[in-house]
Amino acid sequence: MCYDLDSMRKLYPYLKGYLTESILAPSFKLLEALMDLLVPLVVAHIINNGIGMNDQNVIIRSFIFLIVLAVLGMLFSFTAQFFAAKASVGFASGLRQSLFDHIQSLSYSELDELGTDTLITRMTSDINQLQTGLNLSLRLLLRSPFIVFGAMIMAFTIDVRLAIIFAVTIPLLSLVVFAIMLKSIPLFEKVQIALDRLLGMTREDLTGVRVIRAFCKEEDEIRQFDELSEDLTMMNRKVGRLSALMNPLTYVIVNMATVLLIYCGAIRVGNGLLSQGDVVALYNYMAQIIIELIKLASLIITINRSLACGRRVSSLFEISSRMKYQNDHVEEKDDRCAVVFDHVSFAYNGSGAEAISDVDFRVDKGQTVGIIGGTGCGKSTIIGLIPRFYDCSKGTVYVNGTDVREYPKKQLIGKIGIVPQKAVLFEGTIRDNLLWGNEDATEEEMNKALEDAQAAEIIAQKEDGLGSLVEQGGRNFSGGQRQRLTIARALVRRPEILIMDDSASALDFATDYRLRKAISGFKDMTVFIVSQRTSSIRDADLILVMDDGKIVGQGRHEQLLKDCAVYQEIYYSQFPEERKNNTEVFACE
Amino acid sequence: MNKSSSMNTLKKVLRLIRRYRIQVFFSIFLSAVSMILQLYVPILFGEAIDHISAAGADPKYFVGILMKIVIVVLIYAFASWLMNLVNNHITYGVVEDLRKKAIRKIQDLPLSFLDQHSTGDIVGRVIADADQLSDGLLLGFSQLFSGIVTIFVTLYFMFSKSISITLMVLVMTPISFLVARFIASRSYTMFAKQSETRGKQTGLINEMIGNEKIVKAFAREDRASQRFASINKELQKYSQSAVFFSSLTNPATRAVNNVIYALVALVGSMKIMSGTLSVGGLTVLLSYANQYMKPFNDISSVVTELQNSLACAARVFELIEEEAQTPDPDRQLKADRGEIGIDHVYFSYDKKQKLIEDFSFHADPGMTVAIVGPTGSGKTTFINLLMRFYDVDEGKICIDDQDINEVSRKSLRRHYGMVLQDTWLKNASVRENIAIGRPDASDEEIIEAARRAHSYEFIRRMPEGLDTIIDDDSLSQGQKQLLCITRVMLCMPPMLILDEATSSIDTRTEVLIQQAFGKLMEGRTSFIVAHRLSTIRNADQILVMCSGKIIEQGSHEELMKKNGFYTKLYESQFAKAD
């Protein structure tokens, strides 16, 4: 437990703002519990002094007192619930905002390590679970032990001898309740794992239905599913057998204690040491204890789950961006090179091998660079280093003659327009999406960007033009339309450097061609084009041919076709008939 | 859900439980026994308390009655333990039976059903809905039953102690319900607002965090945070009210209970003074008044739970009762030549929208047939029909003169090797994934196939080689395609279907694979769907499809000569940038 709480220290600050509420909520809950604890005493008073003394006034006064206790108890409880709701929701909201902001501060490396799914789960279900856990803790965590021990103390005030029965029963009950619970928590986790496996299997069967049927594997899949399903049933029954003990065992213990209580009580009343009403009060206290212990047990299961969520959220805060940015605007050196890679190597975290090694090239301002190569050869890695999404492990990347690590973030990003591989748009209007590229863009600039990106016709078809709605992810546009809109988004920035990461793959060749022509109209813009198609890059001023993380050739198309074997292979795999025409060239070399 | 369909579902659930009817009767019996015993205990304690008096007690009496209590408690404990075990057994048994039925049905459903329903929806039915059914329905049954038993037994015991007090309690009961209902209706609005806002927030989280890299590439972090903050503040407001209002129910109903308790104490003591009730009787009434409300509250929540479970059950049953694909004939396909005849075939997914009409085609044994055409022209549909993932509406498809509708699907599919664009891998070892078509293949054979498919390169580099466990996310799209190709290379089936099989593989590797396929395809009838025209140029026959029809047909040279649709398609793809 201590270890648990320590691992969550990152979460404390969010509770601090609600310190008053967090203290008031349980305090009012304790007041309410106090009202509950007084009830058996009042009933004892009725029996001893009202009935015993035949005094109607005592009974009526006691009745009014009971009503007052009920109303006060309710008001205290309402107040407690209010503070608990305020503290827990406030805590969760603050935490959610901070976590969101924290995620915004992470760099690509950390995002790669954590993965999107994890981040989304932490942001949503984990924090919701924490909110519920905190709310219940504030309301009940103190109340139940308070009533249990309160009942025991009350018992001591009535009769010390008989209270010893309480002092023995309570630890015994706690032992049973907590032993069963502690044993079942790990089993519950196993059940969850078994259920997840079954879920994964079902999903797999559905997504792979064509392959399964094509290979006639239906029976095998059914057999495997049955195994997993029986596994789950076994785990469930195991947990079930354990929790089946809880109710009968605690019931037996409490009632045995009550039997003992009545027996000893009867003797003591007979000896004149105790009254009948007192025995009734002790009997009632015993009943309160059992109810509270069972509540406590189920509360602890909830809290345990929340603690696990808390640990996961907290551990996310422990991860901070390893990338540090400069704050001050830098004066750029006057350099004719827009981008220089000086013997750059880079390895992604967690993979030993370098994704690119010793990459060395320079690009003049206004040049167009094509990067080509096979799947996983490091094309996207290279362009990710220019806007400093990652820091290279060896060598230096220069933009406008300045080391990228010397730029403040916004100054560097502001120079670069990126069209990512994955063409994603965001919910809102087309205008909203274009403003991502440049918040101050005018209507005219946006239209120009759309035209250059060959996307003007998409808008022309829409009634609302720039105001046309974009659904989440841009799913109301086709892949090709999305690609053109993301290109427009980058162009609206009028970037010094435009990076297109295989972002024309869904365009037909004619549109691709018109697009490249429009882009070549921006004379002072340096352009990087990553592509698998040689036709997209053959006109580039500089072509980098990548193979297995290394540059195996750089130069212009004609030159590479002569002296770069990898480039030849790629090119002829796409234009086989030209191989025949060029066989002589091959023969010469 | 209306009444009659709920009743219908209920009947089906009962039919499902029928297998366990002995256990169910046993459980009901045990539940009745334990409930009656549990409620009898306070009566016994009440009697014992009545015999406590300053005049001194008869120890013999106390030993007697207390022994009785001990025995009753022990029998109760045993019965309720046994009942828990039996309920456990039934619950998990029923859900397992249900899931097994569901998975068998899934393997036997026509693809049209699976294609029309999202994976998440069906997975939800098999996993979450089945769970809800077991939890809700069976716990519901037992609680409903024990609740009703408790109420009647309690009332019986209370009436036996004091008719007037019991009537008073009965009259007061609805107040607690009204209070609970009042609060529930208030909090409902808040809950609706909360879940609406939460939905908006989750959408934003998915959008922003899901595309965090793009957010960063445009330095929009601050904007994203601002947008998040405004939704978050709104959510905080609604959540706080929803959480607060909903947490009022318990204290409020408890307060009503406490008032009833006080009234019982008042009236009870008056009756003791007038000699119509004993102190023990009062303790019995008080402890009953305390727990009497509980089954009422339980039952109202159980009824909601039950309705919820029935709705879930209906969804599972809907899946299980879905019409299976047409039964398979016993006849096995025997085809050694691989001659395929497609004879005036009509087909459409949606009967309102015509797709393939009057489609005829003949493939000689060993022929390579390429299918090209724009997206949505029916290329993949054609393959769906060849594999009998879908049945033709009219006309027939024959292999070696045998109608594929008249042979078993399995025997038909065993004749094909298929690689789809949509790669799919099991969450299992590389070996299992490759050997899916031939589980008995030796390591040498698997490695040989991997070499030919050019996947051995990366398999070898994986941490545990063939034994590495992979899932759908651990490989790149290109690597996945290579594994799927390896799968087919290992099987060496007599006919091949390649649907965009190399679309994510770089062009250099593609050329190498194509050579391997070239060898594999020798003497085998094969169908190739491809985007890149370069991959289909060498086919014997090219089918150019457009809106479900073959509009051109012939070899590459013939089609180029025609100067039609194919020529246009070809030129647009290889247009030079000059």
Order of strands, main sheet of chain A, comes to: 6-9-10-3-11-12
> Quick one: biggest sheet of chain A?
6 strands, mixed
Name of the CATH superfamily of the domain at 337-588 in chain A: P-loop containing nucleotide triphosphate hydrolases
Strand content of chain A: 5-15%
The level-1 CATH class of the domain at 1-161 and 294-325 in chain B:
Mainly Alpha
Let me know the average pLDDT of chain A.
Answer: 86
Proportion of helical residues of chain A: 55-70%
Low-confidence stretches of chain A: 583-589
Whole-angstrom Rg of chain B: 36 Å
Strand residue content of chain B: 5-15%
The count of β-strands of chain A is 12
Describe the structure.
The complex is a heterodimer of chains A (589) and B (578). With 589 residues, chain A is an alpha/beta fold. Chain A has 22 helices and twelve strands. Chain A has helices at 2-7, 12-16, 19-51, 56-105, 108-114, 116-141, 143-158, 160-207, 209-214, 218-270, 276-318, 379-385, 409-415, 430-437, 443-452, 456-460, 479-491, 509-519, 534-537, 557-563, 565-574, 576-588, and strands at residues 337-346, 356-364, 368-373, 394-399, 402-403, 416-419, 428-429, 469-470, 497-501, 526-530, 542-547, 550-555. Chain A has a six-stranded mixed sheet with strand order 6-9-10-3-11-12, with helices on both faces. Chain A has a four-stranded antiparallel sheet with strand order 2-1-4-5, covered by helices on one side. In chain A, helix 3 (19-51) packs parallel to helix 7, helix 7 (143-158) runs antiparallel to helix 8 and helix 14 crosses helix 17. Residues 583-589 of chain A have low confidence and may be disordered. Chain B is built from 19 helices and twelve strands. Among the domains of chain B are: 1-161 and 294-325, ABC transporter type 1, transmembrane domain (ABC transporter transmembrane region fold, Up-down Bundle); 163-276; 424-492, P-loop containing nucleotide triphosphate hydrolases (Rossmann fold, 3-Layer(aba) Sandwich). In chain B, the strands form three sheets. Chain B has a six-stranded mixed sheet, sandwiched between helices. Chain B has helices at residues 3-17, 21-50, 59-108, 111-116, 119-161, 163-210, 212-217, 221-246, 249-273, 279-320, 379-386, 409-414, 430-434, 443-452, 456-461, 477-491, 507-521, 556-562, 565-574, and strands at 340-347, 356-363, 368-372, 394-399, 402-403, 416-419, 428-429, 469-470, 495-499, 525-529, 541-546, 549-554. In chain B, strand 11 and strand 12 (549-554) form a beta hairpin. In chain B, helix 2 packs parallel to helix 5 (119-161), helix 6 packs parallel to helix 10 (279-320) and helix 9 runs antiparallel to helix 10. In chain B, 43% of the residues are buried. The radius of gyration of chain B is 36 Å and the shape is elongated. The interface between A and B is large, with 154 and 143 residues.
